[in-house]
Each structure stands twice: as structure tokens, then as C-alpha cells.
Specification:
Blueprint: E1 17-23, E2 35-38, H1 49-65, E3 71-76, E4 83-89, H2 95-112, E5 119-122, E6 126-131, E7 143-149, H3 156-177, E8 182-188, E9 198-204, H4 210-220, E10 234-237, E11 241-246, E12 257-260, E13 288-290, E14 296-298, H5 304-312, H6 317-323, E15 332-336, E16 339-345, E17 351-357, H7 364-375, E18 386-390, E19 397-401, H8 408-412, H9 423-443, E20 447-449, E21 458-460, E22 466-468, E23 475-477, E24 483-485, H10 498-503, E25 505-507, H11 508-524, H12 540-550, H13 567-580, H14 591-599, H15 620-624
Parallel strand pairs: 1-7, 8-12
Antiparallel strand pairs: 2-5, 3-4, 4-6, 5-6, 7-10, 8-9, 9-11, 10-11, 13-14, 15-16, 16-17, 17-19, 18-19, 20-23, 21-22, 24-25
Length: about 650
């Protein structure tokens, strides 16, 4: 049991409340609550209308929570006897554990807080919260409880920095990636002397929006709080969200995220999870899956999971013809190298985007294979979602979620439309692209190099959230693989890293280069395809570098943004962009470091070196003829990152 404050304590008379308790390694018994709060909003009387409404509420929460994925909320009655309630089970519990915990909470609530109108009871596996005040769909911080492990950690300064990074990543995942708003993670540390592996958990109630969930967790996430200095673990419990971290595994099952310390020197990321796709045999031939009577699709990697996944995505041609008005010009959203994209409307009311791969394109099957094998397995709010595929009547059709604001380039590089993107929206777009790439490189079940990240392959939804699209050129890395070489260089000049253009070498650092170009384009509002300022056809990166070295970099800020942008954020984005486009791939940060850079201001970034040479259309002749383009010998390495 935890020590409790006496009921006469003035702390019990205040709201919001913050309590501190000691937390041992062993979780409490099922019947013991972590904490109870009997609110100060009055009492009800037995056999009253409020008592009847409370009974109805508890019955509803008890029956619905374990059957609805671990969360439910209810409202019963009318003012002045209206009552609001919610029940939340920890995201790693099964239905049986959830029901058992809630039964205990419902049974004990009237005993622990007799006749109280407002009650909050926390157990290790569930929360029960009811009140006569409306707290649902809000970020409720009125009853936060801080608990900490009584044992101390060695090297507390480093430990808390690692915890800060770990919990920030877990919070991002819970808010933005998980439909259950729940995530766990572990950070493996390879320092000398070694630091212990750190484990974390974050969860929100599912009536919060993604931004509200992240805001709720951000308000709680403060592992560097001096009151936690040197502690091995802590948890904060709140009505809207909660988190916990320890140096031992305290949750069920495998972690959502497996991370390597970003405080180490930049090294290739370790495998994040067992790969779902296995390489082909020595014969080098993939099996064939017959998807229709007219087309055989040969996959480079095949497994039972892939076959089931592909078959579950099949759509018939008649449905898509009806949805797009037979691929009418009025519904055409755009056209690229592999074919046209059409807007459609399914019978159930869902809006879709249909990519119609060109029948004359020799690359159509390669792109189709990648989209099917990769995109269906990649689920992230900053990646476009694949809904289906159709292979009938010689058609090759891919069906995606419809993203109403189309691609970033259609707004960013339009003199009039770019004014729609204020600084806050641009900063959000940069952060979203970074999180999407981080997922591809380090957090997904597959390690993916996109190879064609550019403004036209970033789609914007109704709220201008970015979604990375077009995985036709993407490549899967397995095991400990960190780079590969190809004799067939494909992509978009201006975004392609020099080592890829000149030697065919690609890696996650190639994507980092493309991201850096994209960041500089978003901040400056200019495309990296040459500009004619000062009478020269100088590329954007070189022009930005000149302004950076002259100390006049703010002159490159998009004029449409006016003079009301936070200069610190603008300068930081220019700085991060330049770090990402350095010549030597090993000097570029990885995406976990970039995400820390974008979200933390407590450390200084290293000065960037001159950007890599960008290969524009005017250089194609020299490259095609085999002439090498010299690279700078600069070998500066990026410094260790210090999280906030």
C-alpha cells in the first residue's frame, strides 16, 4: 500500500491536485488501488435520483469497456442529477483482465468514497472516473498523481535525457499512430559503462483528438523534474492521459517501439522488429501470385502473410469505373511518370484517389509490386493509406485514401496559393514529414528507404497534415543492412543525394538528404531547380549557403510569410536543412536525431559544412557521359545530441 495524506490536509481541499507517492517495483494486488480521489463537489443521498443514475452509469461502463477495446464513456440523467463517467483499461490488457479490474473498481468505489459525487480510482490495469461535472472530451488535469520509484539510478543526468527522448517518441506514437492511443517502448543503451535498458508506456483516453492527446502527455512529460532526480522510474496518472517509465519491463507483450540511444555517435539504426518479409532463395526468383485471369504478379519476396494481404485488397473494375465516372477528365487530379490519378466516390460514401498505372510503362509492375508489398504493411498518420488494388481488363489500379489538399508542391510553389501556408502550418508539415520518415527508417516492422521524397510526393489532408506517398521506387532493407548499390539510378534531380546520383549508393541517409532539400524549400518557398537571382542560375542550396555564411539567411525566408514568424524556429529549420544536405552521408543526422532537433531547444546544433553539389538538368550530360563531379573533402561529423 502507498502512504496517504490525512484527510485534514489542505491539499485535499485544492483542485487541481498533485500528489506524490512512493512506488515499489512490485505492482499492487488487484484489490489495492494505486490511488483514489474522493472529490469535493458534494455528496449524494441514498435512493436519490443521482444514486440511480450512478448505478446505471456503472453498469454501462462495466459491460461496455471490456467489450469495446478497453475504453468507454457514458452520460446519464439530466441536470442537476446528471452524471458523467469513463472507464479505461491499460492498452496491453486483455478483455478478462480489463473486466476483472473494473469489477474491483466498481465494487470498491462506494466503499472508498461513500456517497461522493466525484470519484477517481486508479488501479495498475484500469481507471474508473465519474463526476457530476462534465470532464469528457477535455484534457482533464484536475486530478494528476505523480508516483516515483524509491530506488536511485547511477548517472542520473544521462538517464533522464534518455527517458526524455524515449517518452517523447512513445507519446508521439500513442497520439499520432495508435488507434487505441496507447504505446509502449524500450530504449537499449550501449554506452560504456552500460546504462540499463529503459521501458516506457503512454496512454490517452480515446475521446481526445490526436492533438489533445499529445498536449495532455506533453503537459505531464517532465522526467527531468528535480523532484524525480536520480529516481529509477516514475508514473503520472491523470483523467485524460497517463505515462510511466522504469528500468524493468512492466507491461505485457512486445514493445511498440524499440529504440537505440540517440545520444550515441551516429550509427546505423538497429533492426526494430522481426521482418515480416524474407529474402528470396538463392535462385533469385520470386513466386507468382495469380490475382486475375489475365495478370500474374511476380513478387520479389513472398510469404503467406503477403498473399493474404494482397488478396484482401482486391477491388473489382466495375466499382472503380463507377466511382470515377469511367476515369473522366473532370475527375483527374493529376498525372505523373507512371500514370494518372483520379478522384472517386465509393458506394459507402468514402472518397478515394485511384492511381491508374500506364499500360505502356515498363516500370508499372515494379511500382505496383512495391506499393502492394510495402504500403499495405505501413500504417502511420503521415503516410498515405492504401485501400485496395484492381488488376482486371489489363488495368493496373491502386486505390488510396483521398487527400483533399493534393500535393505540397501545388501550394508551396504557387505564387498565390503559398500564402495559405502560414509559418505554423509549415512547421507542422516539416514535423509530420520527419515523423513519417522516422517511422519508415526506424519504427516500422520494415526498414524502408523511400528514394523519391519530394514536394509532389507529400500530400496534405484537410487539416494540412502531411502524408508521404508514392512508394514505387522504395526499397526494403533487411536485418543489419544499412545501404545498397544500384546500376539503375532513378528519382528526381534536385532531391537526389550525390552519392546516389554519382555512384548508385542509397541508404536512409539518401532520404535524409531529400528531407533537407524539402525543409529548405518549405522555409524559403522556392524550388531547388535553379533560380536567376543575381544574374546566375545558382541552385537553391548554394544560394542559401551563401546567405548562411554571410549572416543574412533570414532574407531567404518566403516573403509571403511576412515579418511575424518566430525567428528562432525559422533559423533552426534553415540550420537543420543544411545539416541534412551535407556531402558526407555519415555527417548527416538520422531521423531520430532530426525529430529531437525539431522538438528541443536545450542544445546547440553543430555548424553545418558546405552543402553537397546538386545535380540539375544542366549537369545531366556530364553525368551520363561518365564524368565524375568532385565532392568536398570536408569530413566533419555531427555532434552528440542533447535532448531537452
Amino acid at each position: 500500500m502507498f502512504p496517504s495524506l490525512p484527510s485534514s490536509s489542505p491539499l485535499f481541499l485544492l483542485c487541481p491536485l498533485l500528489f506524490f507517492f512512493l512506488l515499489n517495483h512490485s505492482p499492487p494486488a488487484a484489490a489495492d488501488s494505486l490511488y483514489k480521489f474522493c472529490g469535493r463537489s458534494g455528496n449524494y443521498t441514498p435512493n436519490s435520483t443521482y444514486a440511480s443514475n450512478l448505478n446505471l452509469l456503472l453498469t454501462s461502463l462495466d459491460s461496455n469497456t471490456s467489450n469495446s477495446g478497453g475504453f468507454s464513456k457514458s452520460i446519464f440523467g439530466q441536470d442537476p442529477n446528471q452524471i458523467y463517467g469513463e472507464a479505461l483499461c491499460r492498452g496491453d490488457t486483455n478483455a478478462s483482465v480489463c473486466r476483472s479490474c473494473l469489477d474491483t473498481a466498481i465494487q470498491n468505489a462506494p466503499i472508498l468514497c461513500p456517497y461522493a459525487k466525484c470519484v477517481v480510482i486508479w488501479y495498475d490495469y484500469c481507471l474508473l472516473y465519474y463526476s457530476n461535472r462534465h470532464f469528457l472530451t477535455t484534457i482533464d488535469t484536475s486530478n494528476e498523481i505523480l508516483m516515483y520509484n524509491v530506488n536511485n539510478i547511477t548517472d542520473p543526468s544521462r538517464f533522464h535525457k534518455l527517458v526524455d527522448v524515449l517518452m517523447d517518441r512513445i507519446a508521439d506514437w500513442a497520439a499520432y499512430n495508435s488507434t487505441e492511443m496507447f504505446a509502449t517502448g524500450e530504449m537499449m543503451n550501449s554506452t560504456n559503462p552500460p546504462s540499463p535498458t529503459t521501458y516506457g508506456l503512454a496512454q490517452c483516453t480515446r475521446d481526445l483528438s490526436t492533438s489533445e492527446c499529445r498536449q495532455c502527455l506533453s503537459s505531464m512529460l517532465n522526467p527531468t523534474d528535480p523532484r524525480l532526480e536520480g529516481r529509477q522510474g516514475a508514473r503520472v496518472l491523470g483523467g485524460g492521459c497517463n505515462y510511466r517509465y522504469e528500468i524493468y519491463s512492466f507491461y505485457e507483450g512486445k514493445p511498440t517501439l524499440r529504440l537505440q540511444s540517440p545520444l550515441e555517435a551516429a550509427q546505423p539504426a538497429a533492426p526494430q522488429a522481426p521482418r515480416l518479409i524474407t529474402p528470396p532463395g538463392k535462385e533469385g526468383r520470386g513466386n507468382k501470385i495469380v490475382i486475375s485471369s489475365t495478370i500474374e504478379l511476380s513478387l520479389d519476396w513472398t510469404s503467406p502473410e503477403e498473399i493474404v494481404s494482397v488478396e484482401s485488397l482486391l477491388l473489382d473494375i466495375s466499382t472503380l469505373r463507377a466511382a470515377t465516372d469511367n476515369f473522366s477528365e473532370e475527375n483527374k487530379l493529376g498525372e505523373g511518370g507512371f500514370g494518372a490519378v483520379y478522384k472517386g466516390l465509393l458506394p459507402d460514401g468514402r472518397e478515394i484517389a485511384v492511381k491508374r498505372l500506364s499500360t505502356s510503362s515498363s516500370q508499372g509492375f515494379g511500382e505496383l509490386r512495391n506499393e502492394l508489398v510495402l504500403v499495405d504493411k505501413l500504417q502511420h498518420r503521415n503516410l498515405v493509406r492504401l485501400l485496395g488494388v484492381c488488376l482486371e481488363e489489363q488495368e493496373k489500379l491502386l486505390v488510396y485514401e483521398y487527400v483533399p489538399n493534393r500535393s505540397l508542391d501545388t501550394i508551396l510553389f504557387d505564387r498565390i496559393k503559398r500564402e495559405q501556408l502560414n509559418w505554423g502550418q509549415r512547421y507542422k508539415i516539416i514535423g509530420g514529414i520527419a515523423r513519417g520518415l522516422l517511422y519508415l527508417h526506424e519504427e516500422s516492422q520494415l526498414k524502408i528507404v523511400h528514394r523519391d521524397l519530394k514536394a509532389s510526393n507529400v500530400l496534405l489532408d484537410a487539416e494540412l497534415n502531411p502524408k508521404i506517398s508514392d512508394f514505387g521506387l522504395a526499397r526494403l532493407f533487411g536485418g543489419d543492412q544499412t545501404q545498397a548499390t544500384t546500376s539503375r539510378v532513378v528519382g528526381t534531380f534536385g532531391y537526389m543525394a550525390p552519392e546516389y546520383v554519382m555512384r548508385g549508393h542509397y541508404s536512409i541517409k539518401s532520404d535524409i538528404y531529400s528531407f533537407g532539400v524539402l525543409v529548405l524549400e518549405i522555409v524559403s518557398g522556392r524550388k531547388n531547380s535553379g533560380n536567376s537571382e543575381s544574374g546566375s542560375a545558382q541552385d537553391l542550396l548554394s544560394y542559401i549557403w551563401e546567405r548562411w555564411t554571410e549572416g543574412t539567411i533570414l532574407e531567404k525566408l518566403d516573403p509571403s510569410l511576412g515579418n511575424h514568424c518566430p525567428k528562432s524556429e525559422v533559423l533552426r529549420c534553415f540550420h537543420i536543412g543544411l545539416l541534412c544536405v551535407q556531402e558526407n552521408p555519415s555527417n548527416r543526422p538520422n531521423m531520430s536525431q532530426v525529430v529531437v532537433m525539431l522538438n528541443s531547444y536545450s542544445f546547440s546544433l553543430q555548424a553545418p559544412s558546405r552543402p553537397a553539389f546538386c545535380i540539375g538538368k544542366s549537369s545531366m550530360g556530364s553525368y551520363a557521359s561518365g564524368k565524375a563531379i568532385p565532392m568536398s573533402p570536408n569530413e566533419l561529423s555531427i555532434s552528440e545530441l542533447e535532448p531537452r
